[in-house]
Model the fold of this input.
Amino acid sequence: MASSFLSKLSFWPRWFWRQLTSMRNALILLLLLAIAAVPGSVYPQRSADPNGVKVFYDSRPELAAILDSVQLFDVYTSVWFSAIYILLFVSLAGCVLPRTKIHFNALRAKPVETPKNLARMPEHIVRDGSDSVLDSAYKVLKKRGFRVMRQEGSISSEKGYAKETGNLMFHYALVGVLMAVGLGGGYSFSGQRVLVEGDTFVNNLASYDSFSPGALFNESRLEPFSVRLDEFDVVYDLANKNNIGQPIDFIASVTRQVGTESYASEIRVNYPLPVPGATVYLTGNGFAPVVTIFDGEGNISFSGPVVFLPQDSNMTSLGVIKTPDSLPEQLGVIAFFYPTAEKLTTGAYTSIYPDPISPLMTMNVYSGDLGLDSGVPRNVFALDTTNMELIAGRNGPAPAIELEVGESADLPNGLGSVRFDGLLRFASLDIAHNPGGIWVLFFALLALGSMTVSLLIPRRRVWVRANPDGTIEFAALARRDDPNLKLILEEIVQEIETKSK
Done:
């Protein structure tokens, strides 16, 4: 009774293991992994686009909460994606290891004995000859790369074990890709930083605007270097009248410093900048107007460039300025920047060209409580006007402030003044490192090469036997359909006969 119970108890683990390590289920898991990766390209991911996730939350909060509950904003680190990933890894390993042992033993084994009835083989040829033909057959087959064994009155040979070797290497390469992706992702990191012309980024955690480390990442892995944005330039298409104003190149001229050495470099789209332990990519750009705000007591409450986010293809941009130290009241500004401004019939402005030909900045000014003392993190690109009053702007008590470069204007109610000092550009940089990237490429190429070998190399067996009646039998057998088998056997026979004369 006890042995029967233990037998039943061990049946299900064995059955599950056999199912998991079958090639059919490994392919199903591979397909599931590909399907599971699709949401990662549909929805913004926190690891690569944290601002995109916040924008999604702001625009569709209810749907975002549902998607977040099933980890669709963290697809590649989600429980369900990891489960498929681990099951696929185990499945491939459990499938390949036993086959490797069998293949290794087959490589060491001698060719099979010559069948008694060669006439049953798919290709069979009979010629007149003598036992001396076997010596020629041995040399010819050996020269053609067959593993040859001489038996009593016959020759047995086979070749094409590289086909199974390629098949196994393909599966090992898939395991290698999975390991490289897993370990590479664990030790990887990705960080974002917005640099205004003249600003410098230093590679430490405090310098990043956002930072997404892998599960195995350690801060000590950040290698020291700095990048200063000297100038940002956009090249627009001026030759094609149907495409005028479309950007054709983005060039970030930077100074890279490693240790005591400085290098002038450029970062362009699809031309990242290699730095120690990371790679710097150009992911975005825009304008950063330089603004100075004086409060009601004449003190400078804000001064410096402000990053404005582009809103359309003509670079109409939106920016927010907060002055929590202004007296007598805190000030908040929602500003629009138009590189080439034109006034519409409605009285509103728009930009008709993305380059700053006639730049204009308009400002809606609010006074009141910015809410920065509540302890709740605030988005620097948004202004919470819940506890603020509009003092200048459309539909406000005073019109919106309009400034060209070098101009200044007084704020209503004696709350100060604002000045448009100049115009700079900014570049959005992504600093990323994934040590598994080169290994993913290596194993992917290995998989491609192994699969090619597996598909192109046929598995064949050839036998030659001298019969007592003075005839010589030649026979060939292929592992699978081989349309060239007959031709190959005829070539071998002809070569053997020529050599034996």
